[in-house]
């Protein structure tokens, strides 16, 4: 099996490269298993103090695969053991939040749907002016999942985050910058450079202090995210089963 999520280190910085090239960094089974395995390794390495996650070329992370979305459409509402499926089955949507050390999402490429939500659980977010960021769930006819209803308004601001979720349209990073998104947005070629510059400021800090401070800064998210996920699953049981959803999935994936 190809190594589609690669871990490499420099000093106390862990770099996580998302490289699922066959599926363009969507949530294939090997992508999900890979990211979980890498973060398990990070959790057991006491030499690390900060993580930088990045994609490849023009892709950071682009959400669910066609098969995954069809599986959700067919499985939601069924009883456990009867083919029921939901996005929490392999919990990874908030893996950056659950990581004890700071995580920087260097979103040098496009981030769509669950991929954008995944990145937003990082402690520091860096976007590219030239790439697309979209909470595109509603394009398919179903309500957002992956914690997006909570974390996107949290990180982009309530008004802009709400617009992103409801419109489901594409935003270039430059437009989000002009709209006042409270995240770092720079030229694509400078995303990784900025991420490393920020990370370098963490490596001389106490590991215990970094962990405690991260936990404290994220206390509200940690306390509220499970309830938000519960509400998303309740909405999915109503919206994912609509007959037009399957048609929209097929149409938007070009088949």
What structural class do you assign from the helix and strand content?
Answer: alpha/beta
CATH superfamily: 2-enoyl-CoA Hydratase, Chain A, domain 1
* Overall number of strands: 10
Percentage of residues in helical conformation: 40-55%
How many domains, in number, for the residues? Answer: 1
Strand content: 15-25%
Q: Number of helical segments?
A: 11
Give the spatial strand order of the biggest sheet: 1-2-3-5-7-10
What is the first-to-last residue Cα distance?
Answer: 27 Å
Second rung of CATH, namely the architecture: Alpha-Beta Complex
Compressed to H and E, one letter per element, the order equals EEHEEHHEEHEEHHEHEHHHH
**Main sheet specs:** 6 strands, mixed
CATH topology: 2-enoyl-CoA Hydratase, Chain A, domain 1
Average pLDDT, to the nearest integer? 92
Q: Determine Rg (CA atoms, Å).
A: 18 Å
Shape: globular
Uncertain spans, ≥5 residues at pLDDT below 50?
78-84
CATH class: Alpha Beta
Could you give the topology of this structure?
Layout: E1 5-10, E2 13-18, H1 29-43, E3 50-54, E4 59-61, H2 66-75, H3 95-98, E5 103-107, E6 110-112, H4 114-120, E7 124-128, E8 132-134, H5 148-156, H6 158-167, E9 171-172, H7 173-178, E10 184-186, H8 191-200, H9 207-217, H10 219-239, H11 243-252
Parallel strand pairs: 2-3, 3-5, 4-6, 5-7, 6-8, 7-10
Antiparallel strand pairs: 1-2, 8-9
């Amino acid at each position: 099996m190809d190594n589609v999520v690669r871990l490499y280190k420099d000093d106390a910085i862990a770099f996580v490269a998302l490289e699922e090239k066959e599926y363009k960094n969507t949530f294939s089974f090997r992508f999900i298993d890979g990211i979980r395995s890498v973060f398990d390794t990070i959790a057991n390495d006491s030499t690390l103090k900060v993580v930088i996650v990045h994609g490849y070329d023009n892709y950071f992370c682009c959400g669910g695969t066609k098969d995954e979305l069809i599986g959700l459409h067919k499985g939601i509402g069924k009883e456990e053991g009867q083919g029921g499926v939901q996005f929490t089955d392999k919990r990874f949507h908030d893996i950056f939040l659950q990581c004890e050390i700071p995580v920087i999402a260097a979103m040098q490429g496009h981030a769509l749907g669950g991929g954008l939500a995944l990145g937003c659980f990082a402690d520091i977010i860096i976007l590219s002016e030239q790439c697309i960021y979209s909470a595109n769930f509603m394009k398919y006819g179903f309500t957002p999942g992956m914690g997006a209803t909570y974390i996107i308004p949290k990180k982009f601001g309530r008004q802009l985050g709400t617009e992103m979720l409801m419109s489901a349209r594409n935003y270039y990073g430059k437009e989000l910058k002009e709209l006042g998104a409270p995240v770092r947005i720079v030229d694509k070629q400078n995303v990784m450079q900025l991420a490393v510059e920020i990370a370098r400021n963490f490596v001389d800090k106490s590991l215990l202090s970094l962990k405690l401070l991260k936990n404290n800064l994220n206390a509200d998210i940690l306390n509220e995210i499970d309830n938000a996920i519960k509400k998303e699953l309740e909405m999915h049981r109503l919206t994912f089963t609509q007959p037009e959803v399957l048609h929209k999935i097929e149409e938007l994936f070009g088949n």
